[in-house]
Amino acid sequence: MRKAGFFLFLTIVLALTSANAFAVDVELLSPSDVSIGDSFDVEVRLTGSDSVGPFDLAVNFNPALLQMSDITPSVGFSAPAQTMIDEANTSGSLALSYLDVTMRGFTPTDDGMNVFVITFNATATGSDTITPSGTVTAAGFPPADITGTLTPATVSISNSSASEGVDITLQANDNVQTTFDVKAHMSGTERVGAFDLHISFDKDKVRITDILPLVAGVVVPGNASISNVNSDGAFTVGYANTSGFVPGADTKVVSISCEALVEEGYATFEIDNDTYVQNNIIPTDDITGTMTGKTVYINPYFVPLKGDADGNEIVNSIDALYILHFIAGNISSDMLEGNCDVNSDGVIDAADALYVLHYVAGNIIDFP
Question: Rg of the Cα trace of the chain?
Fold first, then answer.
């Protein structure tokens, strides 16, 4: 009788285990056709009815064709550090992990769930199959393997929209307070080996307080030269490197900290015609594209948009990612725009990023 009872117990356990054994599929979703220089998103999607516990997944790609620029995690997940993204852009593989200390996990459901959205820049023509790899385990202990099918995404990159040059734009909020930042951006698919960027501004309306390089090797006027910059109403930013860099969809090269000299009014920043951009081959060619200045409206009553970390006057999940990169030490406070202390507790931390994500998801309609 004791032996029969044991087998009955074992049969019930096996039946329950079999009833709850659901596979969780991993699928990468992306556009099938992009153009060189394009920025596009790849969704890392889990589908299944089981409770997912820890997972270790990797996204594998060809770094000669694609480069990662941003990663947006869903609520409850953490984005990899910027150093890991930089390493992935060399190795062609990025690890994505999840560890649930509560052991309750989460259920993606049969409709699927995006756990990460990875933004890629297409840097060369060709075709790349972005593949997932790794293991998904069930919630609870011990963590059983519930990995289902792994579905890759194939992207074809054409040169239909390739730029004939490297464009330069000065960007800032349209409305600014008495202190604000203007950033010089470059975009294009050619490798930049050298440039001289000449920027002029309304010296009667604006005073420059600091100029910060955002790309390694960029040379800017030092603090000892700031008085000359303000006297001239102009300055030059230089760069020369045989390796160079490809701006891609968007690269910030310099940040200009400004202070208004007028209480209210318009101030204009321009890129002078003496500006040039050259590639890194010998002999060098001029690859200067369009040059776009920026006019801001100085308004002492303007209140920066809470949570707008990237300064585009729209609050979305990218702003949460900016805040997380700041907390991790991957970017400096100079690269944060708007008011990132969204919960008004006097510090910028992970709670602020979580508030932004709840706002984007529609769970809250305003910040504290």
Answer: 25
